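hey so i finaly got around to running the thing on Cytochrome c oxidase assembly protein from Streptomyces rutgersensis. pasting the sequence first so u can double check i didnt mess up the copy paste, my clipboard has been acting weird all day
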Amino acid sequence: MHHDTPAHADGTESGLAEWLLPGLVLLAAAAGYLLLARRARHRNAALGWSRRRTAGFLTGTALLGVALLPPVAVFAHEDFRGHMAQHMLIGMYAPLALVLAAPVTLLLRTLPAARARQLTAVLHSPPARVVAHPAVALLLSSGSLAVLYFTPLYNATLGHPAAHWLLHAHFLLSGCLFAYVIAGPDPAPARPAVPVRLVCLGVAVTAHAVISQLMYGGFWVDVNAPADQVRGGAEIMYYGGDIAELLLAAALVTTWRPERGRGDRRGAAARQAPVAV
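ok and heres what it spat out for the 3d tokens, dont ask me to read them lol
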């Protein structure tokens, strides 16, 4: 059965307004980050703020712009393959770039001391610890895909702008949460050891592979689109997901810092002790 094109994806003024709003939001987010980065450099010129992190945030917002604005957004409304490409950008590639920009660390450096302590308390609260657990992040990011594509949920979002934007928000937030838990440079309240995070990443790779293969074979999939579009979308999920997860694994390696053992700390203290002459 053919994919019904939502009415809000036409070339009318309402369609233009739909593209204008996310564009303005993304511009505001990029401007806000640049302003905070400038403030951080002025507050502590010696410490400064990494231009690489700034470039990461701008890259993430640019990827979101590619996904949410024409021509990709229009293609996503008309073709399931466009939807899947949009999903990859919003849910996997943009979140990794945004998370590697360390926005929480930037906020902590620029907020007044009292506000920074409040934010730290929120990050260390029990609800934050639960949400930031890798199993929860894995369930929200990868587990929800089976619910979306193997139930009538995806078809129910077609033609309903509010549901469509809620789906985008879920992709973005769950993707950011998973990238943050696995390889985020921002402080985490109870981030597990690297082996645990690698296991969670491996489960995510397996889940994407299984879901995409089932979708390609037409098993259990409940997507109102032609079979060739569904198979094409499955290929995009399979290969695009593999590349994104390899990038996430590389980010985990580059952001990982081994914890010092007691012997290492004693050695460091001995090296820093003054030497009698």
